[in-house]
Specification:
Length: 478
């Protein structure tokens, strides 16, 4: 009865909670299991297999897991000092190119928000982990569920531009693949089954929300923006991205695995129809915001029982994950001008078991998909080197057998320096064109000579820092 209840509860949560997307938080830090959080595609012992590798489910013990997880980020972006002569003067208000005001309208530099020389990120985000593994038809059909739920902020979307357009807002740079991406609810549902003694298959779905917000706006007076009459409609649709995997076990001491995960993300498509009292035809606005984009990926892995004696054993494993970051969409639903590169992350892990106790250790290298930002764009990201460890022991609480575990990890954001190059394929643009002429006198404008830009990343920047994650778990056999 307990197993059936927990299964129904997890299915209910997955259907009526916020649908999941391929989770940046779980991709960064691993799942709810206390063991081998950095090599979960091959050494998983818990419900994180429902997200990473469903073909592992048949070899797991039925269990219900609950845990608390906390991660902290301490990072910084150091902006280099702007050279003399690149500021935009107030003369831009009188500038014209070919008799027309420039389509791109920068503000005078001294009217922007202060450009900080050091942008520091210091966060601590708590999460609640829930997981379930239950056998529906012995090991022929096993159900897995995993949820990571933010305990402080349920979900957020903080958009920003990665080029000169950010001058109108924060006038600084932001981490491209962290921030709001690491504050999202994550759910995973999967099924796995043993086909033969040496072959297991698994499949599941990552769900994502696509939202369309439509508004009809009437402005009685265009000069009075506080008097607005609005009707709105909101549509929310779920998209599904599949993930499939297989596990080959030629011998009891070793196995090989292979899997695929489809791309997913969450979009907010906004469509506004503006009607002004003084204009007969409505004006249309449309823009898209996006968050949590995860590319399609392919992984391979292998594990081996390297040593065994009685109830003691040492298992080692390795995995490699290829990710198709060339299709990345930023927070405004745009593809970068300089295409991101596909990456291959590699990880090694080991687990030592002795009776009722288990110890684990992992190491992972995750290269950044962001190419050198020598041009107009300022996507800030770093290679990551991660090391993790975990411990789990059997407990007996009032006659109930439980397993308690702790795990922690540290990740170094490898320091990176970026220097802008005006000969780059998509260089920093000159926002006050050299051929600008005075809109009223048609005279050449000396303030436009040379390069003037409000791009917050010019002339360069450095970035680095570290991430720390720790969790405690409690699981009960079913």
């Amino acid at each position: 009865m307990l197993t059936r209840f927990l299964t129904l509860l997890c299915v209910f949560c997955s259907l009526f909670g916020s649908p999941a997307l391929a989770s940046p938080t779980i991709e960064f830090f691993g799942g709810a299991s206390a063991m081998n959080t950095l090599t979960p595609r091959i050494l998983s012992t818990g419900p994180d297999a429902a997200y990473f590798n469903a073909s592992l489910l048949p070899r797991l013990d039925p269990q219900f897991t609950i845990g608390l997880f906390l991660f902290s980020e301490q990072s910084n972006i150091q902006l280099m000092e702007r050279p003399a002569g690149v500021d935009i003067s107030t003369a831009i208000y009188e500038a014209a190119v070919d008799g027309k005001t420039p389509k791109h309208r920068p503000l005078p530099t001294d009217q922007l928000a202060a450009r900080p020389s050091l942008n520091e990120v210091s966060t601590a985000e708590p999460f609640i982990d829930l997981g379930l593994v239950t056998r529906m038809i012995d090991d022929k059909l096993v159900f897995g569920f995993l949820a990571r739920i933010p305990a402080a902020q349920f979900q957020s979307l903080d958009s920003f531009f990665a080029d000169e357009r950010e001058q109108y807002f924060s006038n600084t740079l932001h981490p491209a693949l962290r921030g709001d991406r690491l504050r999202m609810i994550s759910l995973a549902l999967s099924l796995g089954g043993k086909v033969t003694d040496w072959l297991s298959l698994g499949a599941g779905l990552s769900l994502s929300l696509n939202t369309t917000a439509k508004s009809k706006v009437f402005l009685p007076d265009a000069t009075d923006q506080e008097r607005v009459i609005v009707n709105s409609s909101l549509e929310v649709n779920a998209d599904m991205a599949p993930h499939v995997s297989l596990l080959l076990t030629p011998a009891e001491t070793w196995s090989f695995t292979l899997g695929f995960k489809g791309a997913s993300g969450q979009d907010v498509d906004t469509q506004n129809e503006l009607l002004f009292w003084s204009f007969g035809e409505p004006r249309n606005q449309q823009f898209t915001l996006s968050t949590g984009y995860q590319p399609s990926s392919i992984f391979i892995g292998a594990d081996l029982i390297a040593w065994q004696c009685g109830d003691e054993s040492v298992r080692v494993g390795a995995e490699a994950v290829w990710e198709h970051w060339a299709s990345y969409k930023n927070r405004h639903g745009e593809n970068p001008l300089d295409t991101w590169r596909d990456t291959v992350a590699v990880a090694l892990g080991t687990r030592y078991s002795s009776g009722r106790m288990h110890f684990s250790a992992d190491a992972r290298y995750q290269p950044s998909p962001v190419p050198d930002q020598r041009g107009r764009e300022n996507y800030v990201d770093n290679d990551r080197i991660a090391i993790g460890t975990g411990f789990e022991a059997e407990l007996n609480v009032f006659g109930v057998k439980l397993y308690g575990g702790v795990h922690m990890q540290g990740q170094v954001l490898v320091p990176r320096e970026t220097i802008k190059d005006l000969n780059a394929p998509n260089p920093v643009i000159d926002e006050f064109p050299d051929n600008a002429r005075n809109l009223f006198t048609d005279e050449p404008m000396e303030d436009g000579k040379g390069l003037q830009t409000n791009n917050p990343g010019y002339p360069g920047f450095t970035s680095g820092g570290f991430l720390f994650g720790a969790g405690v778990t409690l699981r009960t056999p079913l």
